[in-house]
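Materials and Methods. Structural model of ABC transporter ATP-binding protein. The 259-residue sequence of ABC transporter ATP-binding protein from Propioniciclava tarda was retrieved and submitted for structure prediction as follows.
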Amino acid sequence: MLTITHLTKHYGDKTAVADLSLTVPPGAITGFIGRNGAGKTTTLRSAAGILDFDAGVITIDGHDVRTDPVSAKRVTAFLPDNPDLYEFMSGLDYLSFIADIYGIPATSRRSLIERYATAYGIDGDLGSSVGSYSHGMKQKLALVSALIRTPRLLMLDEPFVGLDPVAAHRLKGDLRSLCDAGGAVLFSTHILEVAQALCDNIAIISAGRLVVSGPTSSVVGDSSLEKVFLDLQGDSAGAAPPGATPQPAQEGPQPGASA
Ligand SMILES: Nc1ncnc2c1ncn2[C@@H]1O[C@H](COP(=O)(O)OP(=O)(O)OP(=O)(O)O)[C@@H](O)[C@H]1O
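The predicted structure was written out as tokens:
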């Protein structure tokens, strides 16, 4: 569904992502793990077509995000860690606006909005302006705006931060349902217990380089994702756990990169 090949992104003389290749298959939830500054957001924003990159090719459902961005974006939803919403709109206006942009038919949009707004507990707030929402409510509105589109690929940056436990539980179910319907999910998280329990595949990035990717069962083995992750931090080019795909040694980021 999502194929990233040799992605490289610099910010000035800082290399944020270095020659990263990753495949996110349909029908599976892939967790993207890495320390602060490792390059997760840069990778996700590049794949979402909202950040230009220096080298590499990214395709979504066969559409090149650079040469065919409209087709790629049509099948993709991206939920940033800090969604920038139109605060002057009401929640319902915002969702209707998104539904207009993505051509969600009038016949189904109302039931989709009702279904997801109710599921995430913001149905009673849709008449209020987004500017009056709490941080978590804004996050839920952004989430609902992504889910009503029933995207083929859903990418989320730290989606569980700030969500209440009921919403977090609901989100786990919705991510699984999307994959069961043939879609694909890629999300970044620092909550390794959630990643281990929820994800079919795990990709670990360190200092801009992908160091491990593979099925969760192979990456984790008899250990825990936390232990695997902590061990890798001591040897970031490191030995991959048995069954996981060790990533080829690559040149590290330029001096000045932080991860
Ligand atoms: N706009 C920017 N200008 C300069 N450097 C940036 C910019 N955005 C990110 N970086 C740098 O790129 C590197 C990767 O950042 P990125 O935000 O992708 O990391 P991350 O893995 O998402 O981190 P976190 O877990 O803290 O969200 C970091 O060294 C960061 O300082």
